[in-house]
Amino acid sequence: MNYAESLNYIESASAPGSKPGLKRISALLEALAAPQRGLKFIHVAGTNGKGSVCCYLESVLQENGIKTGLYTSPHLRRVNERFRFCGSDISDEDLAELIDDLAPVNDSLGRQCTEFELLTAAAFFYYKKLGAEIVILETGLGGRFDATNIIEKPLLSIVSSIGLDHTEILGDTKEKIAFEKAGIFKSGCPALCLKGDENVLEVFESEARKRGSKLYTADESELCLISADIGGQLFSFEGKTFKISMLGAHQLINAALAIRAVEILREGGIKIPDEALRRGLEKARLSSRLSILSDKPLFILDGGHNPMGIESAKAALEAIFPEREKIVIFGTMKDKDISESLKLLKGFCSEIVCTSVGGERAKDAAGLYEMAAETGIPGSFEPEVPGAVEKALQRAEKKNALVLCLGSLYLAGPVLDYFEEKKNADSGN
Questions:
Q1: Got the DSSP string for 144-169?
Q2: Range of the domain at 184
Q3: Which among 99, 180, 313, 347 could disulfide-bond with 142, CB atoms 3.0 to 4.6 Å apart, if both were Cys?
Q4: What pTM value is reported for the model?
Q5: Cα(281)–Cα(264) distance, rounded to whole angstroms?
């Protein structure tokens, strides 16, 4: 099986959609001799911030010389991004070989697993084969019935910020969503969450007691921003000073979770020097988290895809560029809270360019533009992402404005492709 054939198999040999439950992946893993049982995990769930927490932890562990696996979703451009080992994405050849190994087993079971379940099983198989010392495992959706929750004894379970997203599946209140996320807590294993919301914290405390998990918290009130600019943020947490390269107050919270996680891992016997912690935090960078793709005009890409994420990006740019005019490129999914997201963007941006991320779940560009106009945001729409980027850049150049592109992680891929193609064209490649 070559790389193209492996991608085709992933798409064609799995059940469509998201199907909660662990029976299917359990059967597949048992047929593969349960590779997950020989691995050590840090399990991370949450509405917003879990990808950043994973990124910080990966960077810190690597600075400490630990052979680290990182499994995340969704991917921005290529499925290879989901499987990282020692800081690098899986190669095309290794992915093809991995799927080739799994295919006969999956076929023998009637191809019942969803795509995410198949990829999760592949990740366990891959990291076991390579001898990963610690695997950082990000949930796909929720926690309790997520395929990643098949693991039994993680080193640590972490839940990042909780907000209203995927409410049709996880529940329509923060407390219901917190209950689903707390499903990753395991008996005898430590768990970590934010201290913030009292009602949410009560859910975590209750579930930790029921599951026999010792609950730790990261207290946001212990955070103090010292300075911030386009190059990063200097802050203190629990009296110690750290620097991160990622922008926004929300990233301070994510970093605080990572710092507390390191403290808990130390209690469990893993030696992580302060210098490795500091270097790892500062080196951590995650594509599409307020990432600067162009200086002139200034173009910033963010993965904010719900009101909570959009508010975080908005607050970060208002703090760093309070007087700068802002143009927003916006594309999102039909099942998101579009009205609330647009309300947050009103007054923040001088104009909006609506586009479509593509696929059945995507909100069409024209319909999105109509909603923006009804909200009182002037702008236009471009059905294709490259056209939206071109238009926004042209408008920004005329007005000396910055461009912020957000609304969906699925928007990031075509935007990154656009800038790579432009770079290659400019260099004559």
A1: TT-GGGG----SEEEE-B--S-SHHH
A2: 3-283
A3: 180
A4: 0.92
A5: 16
* CATH code at position 329: 3.90.190.20
Cα–Cα distance, 82 to 69 (Å, whole number): 10
Q: Using CB atoms within 10 A of its CB, is residue 52 exposed (0-12), middle (13-18) or buried (19+)?
A: buried
The span from the CA of 181 to the CA of 164, in Å, is 12
Tell which residue, 50, 45, 59, has the closest CA to residue 309. 50
Residue 344: name the closest of 381, 306, 399 by CA. 306
pLDDT at 170: 82
Tokens of 249: 């107050």
The CATH number linked to 69 is 3.40.1190.10
SS3 359: coil
Give yes or no for a contact between 51 and 286, defined as CB atoms under 8 angstroms apart.
yes
Nearest to 119 by CA among 276, 258, 6: 6
The model's pLDDT over 277-317, given as tens digits with 9 standing for 90+, comes to 999 999 999 988 899 999 999 999 998 889 999 999 999 99
Beta strand 351-354 pairing with 379-381: parallel
Walk across the sheet containing 223-229 and list its strands: 223-229, 232-237, 240-244
Give just the sign of the alpha carbon dihedral 166, 170, 172, 178: negative
**Residue 17: per-residue pLDDT:** 66
Q: Which residue among 283, 314, 334 closes a domain?
A: 283
